[in-house]
Specification:
The chain has about 140 residues and is mostly helical. The protein contains 5 helices and 2 strands; from the N terminus they run H-H-H-H-H-E-E. Helix 2 packs across helix 5.
Length: about 140
Amino acid sequence: MKKLVFILLSALAVSCGNENAPKPERLLSEDEMVDILYDISLLQAVKSYKSQILDTNSVDPRTYIYKKYKLDSITLSQNHNWYASDLENYEKIQGRVSNRIRSEHDKLKPKKKGNPDKLIAKPGLGTGQQREHKIE
């Protein structure tokens, strides 16, 4: 029994070597993969947060990427496996996706409005009148 477990673990270790996935016939550029992974991330976020938006706009997340990038599922899967087989490069790609999400998020944040020279009205001293007071 111990020999069988050892053989199975050894076979598993050998099969999980550092071999790269086969290069796809249609290899997408890294920039294209960043764009695709970015769009997939957005679709997943929208689907989990407000899926009715997708329904209202007739967007099927399962086919949106294929139509937008003129891909089929096999080509996307092969490219994803190709890039993921080089972990160091794949981490860089994922980092670019994360940076892009953060950048777009920051653009959508409301700007803080603060004018130190803004004048506000303060009530007068018992006369019902108001006087201006500078905020400092």
